[in-house]
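Workshop exercise sheet. Pairs work together: one partner reads the sequence aloud, the other fills in the structure field after running the prediction. Swap roles for the next sheet.
Pair: D.N. / O.F.
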Amino acid sequence: MIDYSVLPMFLAACFILVVSPGPDLLLIGSYSSKQGVKSGAAITLGIFVAGILQTLFVAFGLAKLLTIIPMLSVALKLMGTLYFLWLGLKLIQQWYAHGVASAAPVQSVNKSGAQLFLIGMLNNLLNPKALLFFALFLPQFTHNGADIFLQILTLGFILIFVALLINLALSVVFSIAGKKLANKFKIGRYVDGILGLLFITLAGRLAFSSEQGA
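Structure field:
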């Protein structure tokens, strides 16, 4: 079993990590404000599944491969960078075709729940820093008096369930804020372009980020 004396500190750390600005929060905020709370929830579920996989990777020691074989980390980073760059350019192209080339505002094509789920999951799995963070963060709250494997699994699942609840709540907040801003500033026709720039920013952030830390 885990050491329950460290649980309050662990939960506080989980909360801070989830609400800190990053790719996950950016995705949830972007799509929740554009397509509503269901879209944010779909991305959140994708992130949740990715968290389960990352916890299992850490528990089974697979995350160490990224440090033992640096080329794996480089390859994963390249895949993530190209994926986000492709999404960003596609959204900008869609914005130009539906928003700029037409004199009248055109309703942008919303992504399905399955597409958003996949985007949320890939956002984590194609980011080597996320997996390395799991590998560095979770063991800090383990102790030698119990099975390390079970401790990692327990702490990992606590972390991803906390993230699930917080991200669902943030989806509601961003959805409400997005509707108010869209009605007030009439920015709906530019959302695809904004999202495209955000994805390109994610690509650059991943490409030029250090392999140290999360």
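Discussion prompt: Residues 24-82+109-184 form one domain. What would you look at next?
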